[in-house]
Amino acid sequence: MKHLKRIMTIIVALTIVALMIPISAMAATDTVDFEDGNYDAFFLRMDSDSDNSILSVVELNGSKALKVDVQDANKTPKIQIQVSDLVNSKKLDQIETIELDLVIENPENSPVGENYGGIGNFGEGHYPNWSQGEDWSIIDSEKSISSVTKLSRTFSKASEKFRNNVKSSYVLMKWMGNTNDMYIDNVRFLDKDGNPIELKVAEAEAMANTADDSIDNANDNTADDSTDNANDNTAEELPETGNNILIIIFIAVAAVIILFCVIIFMKKSRLNKSNS
């Protein structure tokens, strides 16, 4: 009986490890790709000339991106990226470069035309505490939605670099002049050698968001019999479903092992009784 208890204890411990597999996979990342729908570290910076843009995560080119819905052509949309919420506070001083994908769309279905903007960094420990890189430009006189442009800006001077344990952020801006929308994706922070800095992940919050999404998707699937929606939902759930299948298989194997041990134990017990 003691041996059986030990075996069951080991199996329970292994099951707990299996349940932690999704957390481990989720934590190992260096790119903000918005696939989980979370953009808590991205918000509007509201100055006197700032546009009151609307932020949301949407589908774009087969993946998700942060949409900046610009409201006023005479205002500047400013998206503050709170780096200190995304990167371990002890690694902030390693960051020198921000890299991201940017797409511009004309909501009136006309060519996007000329679009200009800038990226600056902002840290409470800086003096001065604002630094701005060279302007970026996206120009297209034919398409209503631009191709993906990869922006990269480096801030390597002592007065520009972030400091550990200090609130730090980048600000992405599009200069006033039109109401073209922006799409932001694949945000990364690089060190002086161009290596990406690993992100910290609020595991509890991310798991809660995943659970909420699963409930919403389940309700949508029940209410909506559309084949297309069913296919989309299946595709979105694949990563989570894959983890669940591994866990189910693991538990099933553990159950078989337990059953096998019980059978052996019962046979040994009968054999001992017959010998006695």
Keywords:
about 280 residues, alpha+beta, Jelly Rolls, five-stranded antiparallel sheet, elongated
In short:
This protein has 276 residues and is an alpha+beta fold. The chain has helices at residues 2-19, 21-27, 203-223, 227-275, and strands spanning 42-44, 54-60, 63-69, 78-82, 97-105, 113-123, 130-132, 136-140, 149-154, 168-174, 181-190.
Report what the structure shows.
The protein is α+β, with helices and mostly antiparallel strands. The protein folds into two domains: 2-21 and 218-275; 30-200, Galactose-binding domain-like (Jelly Rolls, Sandwich). The chain has four helices and eleven strands; from the N terminus they run ααβββββββββββαα. It is elongated.
Mean pLDDT level = 79
| Spatial gap, N to C terminus | 19 Å
Q: Helicity level, as a percent range?
A: 25-40%
**General form:** elongated
What's the CATH C level of the largest domain?
Mainly Beta
Biased composition (Low complexity): 210-221
Protein name: LPXTG-motif cell wall-anchored protein
Transmembrane segments: 245-266
Keywords: Membrane, Signal, Transmembrane, Transmembrane helix
